[in-house]
Amino acid sequence: xxxxxxxxxxxxxxxxxxxxxxxxxxxxxxxxxxxxxxxxxxxxxxxxxxxxxxxxxxxxxxxxxxxxxxxxxxxxxxxxxxxxxxxxxxxxxxxxxxxxxxxxxxxxxxxxxxxxxxxxxxxxxxxxxxxxxxxxxxxxxxxxxxxxxxxxxxxxxxxxxxxxxxxxxxxxxxxxxxxxxxxxxxxxxxxxxxxxxxxxxxxxxxxxxxxxxxxxxxxxxxxxxxxxxxxxxxxxxxxxxxxxxxxxxxxxxxxxxxxxxxxxxxxxxxxxxxxxxxxxxxxxxxxxxxxxxxxxxxxxxxxxxxxxxxxxxxxxxxxxxxxxxxxxxxxxxxxxxxxxxxxxxxxxxxxxxxxxxxxxxxxxxxxxxxxxxxxxxxxxxxxxxxxxxxxxxxxxxxxxxxxxxxxxxxxxxxxxxxxxxxxxxxxxxxxxxxxxxxxxxxxxxxxxxxxxxxxxxxx
Length: 459
Ligand code: NOJ
Ligand code: NOJ
Description:
Helix content is 53%, strand content 7%.
């Protein structure tokens, strides 16, 4: 009797250990696969070196193009991985700069606001939602960070020649992008989803970050006048960013002052607002991931997606997180959850845990209360109080954030296949992957959120 009880307990322990192992093995493997597949989409055969194809899909949808936004986000991942890139891929950033020079020097009716380029470097000339002004800002941001690294490695000459030269007219890929951003941020543009022309939170946030970090670089390179000008423009952006907070809704509204494009995004809820924070992290200029309105926005997005997608029914019982899409009213390919938006929530939670750890306290207020209450379930107490690190609730919140993040990874695992392919979307009813296969940005999103998990574990 005792013996069988013993073996029962052992078997139980063994299975739970194996489950945990299997999951962490999956995470590790999915990360490796993501890196491999991300690089497969950089400069594939038939494209100009340095081209980042959005996806190898050539029809329904045709993503065989170099999108400025996607490429900048992907290059940020390449940069973050430093020397850990696969063999012979270390030259990628140099090729990307050459490709950017080619793009910037070819005429386009909207200048650097052109969102996508053919794989040979020519600006796309079919009808499209343009300009899209987040692209040049994201590109400037990635390259500014690389420039700082190059200077530390004694490669200032390359930086001055190719990336940033203070002369007029603007020379250097970063300087050109910064000048474009600094002079055009007030102009209505199409949003990152390429659908609404107006004013966008995401676009403004990345423009602000590019200008502030760009100003620091300009200062170091002796271009003080430009640095001041960029800072002034960033200050202007700070003012208008507030308009997205003050809408009488309990969340950040992505699109305002619409002039053209989709008109049915009534809720104003959009995961782009979360991406706006994530894509601007990494410097002392960044806005904190514990922003009350950001937390409230996540709460409302989650409520909304939980109720509209069939695959989210009983998500709690399934032990997986809610699938997040772009925004509730989305109809693109039927309006589905996306990998990159679902992974963004995991990444946010992990990085929020880090912020909280560093601050050593959590301030619960009427604005962020819903977020923490949902996280803690019945365990939450009254709003408006400060939880300090000696409080037992403090540890509990940290471990809940981690546990939630793990559930979003489990959600991703549920919808990918055994080879680890990540497409753009997964079907809201059946859960099968759809739209663009091997979306480069999906892989980038997996890599950055998994990195956030490792960073938290390494504490
Ligand atoms: C293609 C865009 O990339 C996508 O974001 C959009 O939803 C569809 N066109 C429909 O406008
Ligand atoms: C559609 C997405 O809405 C847009 O953000 C992206 O740049 C393109 N697809 C290419 O991936």
